[in-house]
Amino acid sequence: MSVAALCARLGVSHSILRWEGEKPRTRIAERARAARYDLLAEEARGIGARTVMTAHHLDDQAETVLFRLARGSGVEGLRGMAKRTVRGEIEIARPLLDLPKSALVAYCEARGAAYARDPSNEDGRFARPRLRALAPLLAKEGLDAAGLARFARRMARVEEALAHQAEGAEARLGLLADGACEAAALAAEPEEIARRLLAKAAPAAPFEALERITGALRTAILAGRPYRRNVGGVLIGFDGRKVTIGPEPARRDGG
Fold first, then answer.
1. Would 164 be classed as within a structural domain?
2. Whole domain around residue 193: which residue ranges?
3. Residue 252's pLDDT is what?
4. pLDDT score recorded for residue 250
5. Chain centroid to CA 204
6. Phi, psi at 82, each rounded to 5°
7. In the sheet where 51-53 sits, what is the strand order?
8. Residue 194 domain flag
9. pLDDT of residue 87
10. Could you tell me if residue 104 is inside a domain?
């Protein structure tokens, strides 16, 4: 393998990590990406490393933003990839995120350094390669990699502000800490802030489901009408005065 040959030439050790077991039949690319991060984190722990560096570049960032935009992501997703994130006790660092792919390719070619081309990047069965094929057309309209990355940076600032406001709302309301809060106080918060509080209570809930529930809960509070919904293993309720959150009740055996 080319990586093994390069590492041997540089005197650097390397490991080949394999995703074992049954593979999914849907959302293949997304689940494979998660599996890669899990494998890298496991390897890092095994060798006593605390940081995993990836080679994500500016074009990857643009592609990520475009992909999430097409999937209807909220502000959290539209900020793109962060330069540093944490998965458990392992930090993921992306030091090349501000560099366009063309600059990296030019650097390698100028120094005679070989680089690999991933054939899956051209596989039209997957969404990201299809979006990548649209890049030249989008660039003509101003949606080039630099423009999309700039949009991601702006969304990151918006996300930081919203997260700060949500923390302040929780400090005032105590919904997560106490499992309940005054309904009128929650309804007085911007709907996005209320959604974020509910999302923290039900982290497994789909984004769009929580959007719908937040809107329906707000409508119920303003109308003074009781409300109960299960989502992501959490029961969200309104009894006419307070909003409550708690574990979803166990389902009764139909037999």
1. no
2. 174-247
3. 67
4. 78
5. 13
6. -85, 155
7. 51-53, 90-93, 84-87
8. yes
9. 87
10. yes
- pTM of the full predicted structure? 0.83
The last residue of a domain, from among 101, 121, 153: 153
Regarding whether 66 and 136 lie in a shared domain, the answer is yes
Q: What's the pLDDT at 78?
A: 96
Q: Which domain CATH number covers 67?
A: 3.40.50.620
| Contact in structure between 75 and 162 (CB atoms under 8 Å) | yes
pLDDT of residue 255: 47
191, 163, 81, 96 alpha-carbon torsion, rounded to 10°: 150
How high is the mean pLDDT in each 10-residue block of the chain (255 residues)?
Answer: 81 91 84 91 94 94 93 93 92 96 94 80 80 88 92 96 98 97 97 97 95 97 97 96 93 60
Q: Is 15 part of any domain?
A: no
- Position 122 scores a pLDDT of 75
Number of domain units in the chain: 2
